[in-house]
Structure formats: C-alpha cells, structure tokens
Amino acid sequence: MSLDSPIEYLQGVGPSRAQLLRSELEVHYFRDLLHHFPFRYIDRSRFHKIRDIRDDSTLVQLQATLDDVKEIKQKRGSRLEAWISDETGRMKLVWFQGVRWIRPQLQVGKQYLIFGKPNRFKGQFSLNHPEIQQMEEGKVPLLGELQPVYSSTEKLTSKGLDTRGLSKLMKNLLPEVLKEIKEVIPEEIVSDYRLMDRQLSYAQIHYPKKSELLKKARFRMKFEELFFLQMSLLLSKVARIKKTRGHVFTSVGDKFNTFYSEHLPFELTNAQKRVIKEIRRDVGSGQQMNRLLQGDVGSGKTIVGLLIMLLAIDNGFQAALMAPTEILANQHYKTLKQLLTGTGVRIGLLTGSTKQGMRKSLHQALEFGELNILIGTHALIEDKVKFQNLGMVIIDEQHRFGVAQRAKLWKKNSIPPHVLVMTATPIPRTLAMTYYGDLDVSQIDELPPGRKEIKTVHRNDGNRLRVFQFMEDEIKKGRQVYVVYPLIEESKKMDADLKDLMDGYESLSRRFPRPEYQIGIVHGRMKPEDKDYEMLRFATGDTHILVATTVIEVGVNVPNASVMVIESAERFGLSQLHQLRGRVGRGAEQSYCILMTGHKLSADARTRLETMVRTNDGFQIAEVDLELRGAGDIMGTRQSGEVALNIANLITDGPILGMAREAALRIIDEDPELQKDSNRIMIPELRKHMAQKSRWAKIS
Ligand code: ADP
Ligand code: MG
Description:
- It is a single chain.
- By secondary structure, this protein is of the alpha/beta class.
- The protein is built from 26 helices and 22 strands.
- A 7-stranded mixed sheet has the order 6-7-4-3-2-5-8, with no helix packed on it. The chain has a 7-stranded parallel sheet with strand order 12-13-11-14-15-10-16, sandwiched between helices.
- α8 (about 210-245) packs across α24.
- The protein is globular.
- The relative contact order is 0.09.
- Mean pLDDT is about 85; it is low at about 635-640 and about 695-700.
- The protein binds adenosine-5'-diphosphate and magnesium ion.
- Adenosine-5'-diphosphate (ADP) binds near residues 268, 295 and 559.
C-alpha cells in the first residue's frame, strides 16, 4: 500500500465507505486521508462529575453507568433517549439522528465514557449527540492527553465515520504510509527554523502524544504549507521577470527636476521619497516594473504618481493614469493640470463621456506623441486608443480594475509599460504576501505632517437634531459637509435606497434652507455631466452640503470638507466606511465622522462601528475586516477559488507566514533556478503547488 492507493483498500474502509469518503470529503487516495487534518483537539485528561456541570461548561467528559435506553417514535424516524448516572447524579443523553447506528452500542448496566456538550432544557442538563465509548470492566480507559477532532458529515457519521471512526482509520493508515513520507524542505531551512521531522509531524498531528509535540508538528505543517505557497509565488515572479523586458528609464531629466524644485507645493514625506526611490530602482533595471503602492487614504499617492510619470516623460515616453470612476478621473485631471501649469507637460482626459470630436483629436495627439499624459477611466483601454510610446501606467484604486483589463493595457506596446498600482484599501500584510506575493509592494506608511485624527462618533436617529446643529456650526465656521447614503446599485432595495436618499435630501433642504445654504446631490444614476457639475460646485465651495452615495468613496479630494455623516452606517463594510471617512481630514482643520444607525445592530455591525470609532489606522481596520469577513471575501476571490489552505490560517498565522516568506526569499535569492542539489528536493512538492495555484494566481 502506498500514498497513491485508492482509499477503499485501506483496512476498515471498503467500497461503500470509500464512496462516501470520496463524495463527502474529497478523499480518493490514502494521501488525501492523511491530509484530512484534525481541526481541533480536546484535552481528554480531565473527567467531570454530573453534579458539577454548569450552564457554562463547554465540553464535559464523564464516566457513568447506563441505566435505561428508550427509542421514541416520532413523525419521521425516531429519537433515542438514554439515562446515565454516576455517584453524584443522573442525566439524559439524546440522539435525533443515527439512531440505528447508536442503539446497538448501548447496553444497560455497562460503564461508558461519555463526551459532549451540555444542553439545558427546562432546568435539566442533557447531552445531545454525545460521543460514547464502552469501558471494559473495572478498567480506566487509556487515553491520549489530546484527542483529535476531525470534521465529518451526517452521512459519514451514519456509516460510523464520525470523528472517532475517522481517528480509527488514521490508526490503520499511518503505518501504511509513514515510511513513504520524505523531507521536502531543504536541510538548512529545516535546521534554521527548527522544523520537526516530517514523518513525526504527520504522526503527531493525527496522534498527538503531548501538547508540546503537537505544537511543533502543527508549526511545521503550517510552515511547510505557507513556504510552498510563497515559493510558487516567487518562482512565478522570477519567470515573469525573465520573460518580460522593460523600458529602461536611465535619466532623471528636466521635467522631473524642474517640477521637483519649482512646482512641488510641499515637502515630500520621507515615505513618499522612499517609495519614489524604490520605483526608480525598478524602472532602471531593464525589467518591467509591476509594483503595488499601498498608502492609507490621504497619504499622498497622487503626487508620487505624478513624479513617476514625469520620469517617464523625461525618458521619452508617454504615461497614462487610470481611475475607477469619472469623478475621480476628472479630479485627477484638474489637480494634475493645475500642478503642471507652466511646466510644458501636455495632459489629456478621456472618459466615457468624452465627445466624439474631442476623442478623435485626443487619439491623434496621442499617436503623434503630442500628449505626454493621458488620464482616464477604463475608457482608456476599451477605446481604440493608440499611444506613440506608452512607458508607464498608473492604476489608481486598483481593487476596481479587473485582471483582464490590466492585461489589455499591456498589449498596447510590444514592450509592456511599467505598471504601478496604487491602492488606499489597506490589505493586511498576510493577504498582501499571499495574494500579491508575486508583485513588489511599496508602502507609504506616514501621513503628511499636520494631519489631525478624524474624530469619529456613533449616533442614533434620536440624536439627529444635535447632529444637524453640529453641521450648522461647522458650516458657520466655513467648512463643508458630506452626507452619504447607502445605495447598492444591483440590489433589489435599489428603489427604496433611492427614496431614502431623496427623503434625506429633502429633510436637509428644510433644515438648511436656501439661499443661506446650498445643498448638492450626486448619485450613480445621474448623467456624468450633472455629476461633474455638482462635484465642481462642492469642490469650489459653492455648496455647503453634498448629499451623495458611495460614488464619492474613493479619491475625492475637497480639503475644506470637515464633516462626514454616514447614514445607515451599519450597511457599509469596514473598508468602505474607512474610505468614506477618508474624504474628510484632508485639510488643516479638525475633521469629524458621524456614523448614524438605527438601534438594532448585528454583532458584526457593532464591531465595525466600534472599530471605526476606536481607530483611524487603515491597517488595523483591515485586520478587523479580515477577521470578520475572511480572506476570500476581501480579495473578491470567493467565486474563483480561494487560496486553499489546509492547516495554516491567514488570520492567526501571520508570524509563521512571515518566516515562510523569508525562507522562500532566501532560497530564491541564492538559487532562483533551483539548481543546487539541496534545493531539488522541493521540486515534486512545488509541482503540486504550482498546479493548484494557477487557479487563483491570475488575480494580480
Ligand atoms: P491619497 O493617497 O489618498 O490619494 P492624495 O494624493 O489625494 O492622497 O493626497 C491627499 C492630500 O494631501 C492632497 O491634498 C495632497 O495635496 C496632500 N499632500 C500629499 N503629499 C503631501 C505632503 N508631503 N505634504 C503635505 N500635503 C501633502
Ligand atoms: Mg488618491
């Protein structure tokens, strides 16, 4: 027998159980069962007395005598009830399922070892679906200190393959396959990270002897899993870099230098300077840059983007800046146009609403190299746009752009342009390492000086009048206010949402009447021209209050706005709330974010609101978001298949992931082709991982 033997040949399995193992657990071969790891372990060294069971006891283990068994017919099937006792009391055991399987195991008068979760019903404790095991006369059962718990299913349980049944199978499996298990991690990594022997680790995972050994075994398995994930990411990066040459930007020229010394409106932060250096190293290397730039809202990514585009221009190339919405594209256009006044850099704007005539002349100007920078939405790639020589593409707020779109952009030149993806959606380190493990990542981890923390509060509808008063006070001081309503375009609630928005607009209009106050409104259903017009009025300070949907979520920059009121805040996700809050606090004034909700809140919603009130730090918020939603949801990959981790956990195993990445980097640095003998032992395992990975790695 070997790891590759079909599972039905394992002692204790047979054809019908094999069928179930395949359909329920995807266990086809011995090797699959070996990798069906316990999801937790129970400390079985302690025994409880019936009298000591409290409401709050989680799991109890009893030694008791079986006094009585009754099968009670129900409308459908039957229910099994048994009474047990020890010297301190009596209690009931109940089974609703698998009665036929359990019944023959219960013999009145015998001693049992019973394990389960107490349940209180009308003041009485019972155990539903406990695990039971008959004890031999007068013998205290020999138990390991830790008992593995395997995930199982109802169908498997009905064939005796509950956690204990599976554990028994493992006992048959291990001796068959252990000898076949070979080390797959290079010797020096094993010794430097003190990894437990691989065979021993498998044995301990399924049959832990002591908690310290189990801990080491689990560490090794998690490390191994994450290490191969990192190895495969880094190897595909090596392959990509080898394949794709990049334009070489050798010189820092006139445009960059003049802008830097004469037009830069402020001193760059150290983080901004560092990031620019990192990018310059990339674009000078002869390889194509593929870099992710993370920086919290307001950290100043735009100016970095501009400087990098100037660098491209200095080297004879054109640059493009892509934004996820028209509002944002417009804003970038205006900001950059203003910054570039008097520099001789020519810049254009192309969005879905660019008129045909204008579009034509933009195309020409681009093809003949008369335009240096093109700013736009995805119209920029869907359009028949031809650049004369596109050297640099900056993608702002990447999470809105699809993979296919990015690939299209690369096809616009024979040598692909350098790509810088900027995002303010902080991605927890662990996710960045896994999902963007084959990109280079830069971080602006410092805000421009003088920023004040945005004060955030949570208010109920009952506080509305006071909130209005506060808005009035701020407006009197010359500030502006956003009021944001949820409006989910695809949702069935769309009409109701739109009505909420309009109702809100009307009640604000009554409370803040013209002509003293001006209120604007923007939402996704408006024509682009109208949206622009309203945004412009707000940006120039003509309107005091802007009622909006999440169309203003990313990037919008109106430094005079100091209050962000978010209506039905419980309906927004954490990263959305954080993005919305980032629309204020962009100037020198103290800014505020007011989260309005009803009284009834789910536990998750409460956590989101509390997190927002507690911190302004995008990375902390991202960590909480990860815990609440899980990795797949955050990265939008649930459908396309998550990173399939068997034992490691991206939320709790961050430190192990860090070590695994460090180890993988070390190997790739020294031996990118894996030529060394000591590194070749990884190859079979790597093949498996690479095959698996190709399903989701395309994300970047
Ligand atoms: P984001 O990273 O969210 O895109 P922006 O690039 O819009 O941030 O910058 C936010 C604001 O901070 C802008 O008004 C910008 O002019 C300003 N800013 C950027 N860098 C600095 C700096 N080093 N010092 C002062 N203000 C800065
Ligand atoms: Mg931005």
